[in-house]
Amino acid sequence: MPSADVDRTAEIGSGSTVWHLAQVREGAVLGTGCIIGRGAYVGPDVRLGDNVKLQNYALVYEPARLEDGVFIGPAAVLTNDMYPRSVDPGGTLKRGGDWEAQGVLVREGAAVGARAVIVAGVTVGRWSLIAAGAVVTRDVPDFALVAGVPARRVKWVGRAGVPLVEDPAQRSVATGSRRWVCPDTGARYIETDETLAEVVP
Question: What are this entry's molecular-function GO terms (predicted)?
């Protein structure tokens, strides 16, 4: 869109769209088929995979990395400063070289709900789901649904984003593992030691 601010050094993949008032900073890379919504911000050298969606007014600060198929909801924020200050202890305004940016890594297929905040340095696992308004202060496991302030895992979800249903008949007493099924797709998963993995047919 003509009103978008896309730096000339940014790389925009084929079929990607940058909407009104969005800003894509220098050195940022967008894969193919991405959608950057109205007023969204993509910081310098941020990397987006293919088919990533940033909804309106989402803020993604450098050096974040978003893998293929990631969804960032409206007004969500991916931060990059663990100990933010405007000035140093002497009262001098801090500049870019006065602190170390720590990016957020969002793995394949993960989704971040509206107005969620992800703290600098956190990794969001594959196909996980961050609830709207959550504040994520630690790494999120693959397929976890996390909610709250600070965010905690409340359920497991599959690739479809639908909460999984436990299959009690499949519970293994010997190993302590639990088995889950997606009510939408029928895909099966196994939970062991607070991690979830897909069962390959």
Answer: transferase activity
Asked if 122 contacts 104 with a C-beta cutoff of 8 angstroms, the reply is: yes
Q: How far is CA 46 from CA 6, 57, 117, 186, 198, in A?
A: 13, 16, 17, 36, 29
Cβ neighbours of 176 (radius 10 Å): 10
Indicate the pairing of strand 188-192 with strand 178-181: antiparallel
pLDDT, one tens digit per residue, over 135-180 is 999 999 999 999 999 999 999 999 999 999 998 666 555 566 889 9
Strands 195-198 and 188-192: antiparallel
Domain ranges across the chain: 5-157, 158-201
What residue type is 20 in one-letter code? H
C-alpha count within 13 angstroms, C-beta hemisphere, residue 189? 26
Q: Does domain 5-157 have CATH number 2.160.10.10?
A: yes
Question: What pairs with residue 184 in β-bridges?
Answer: none
SS percent in the chain: helix, strand, coil, step 5: 5, 35, 65
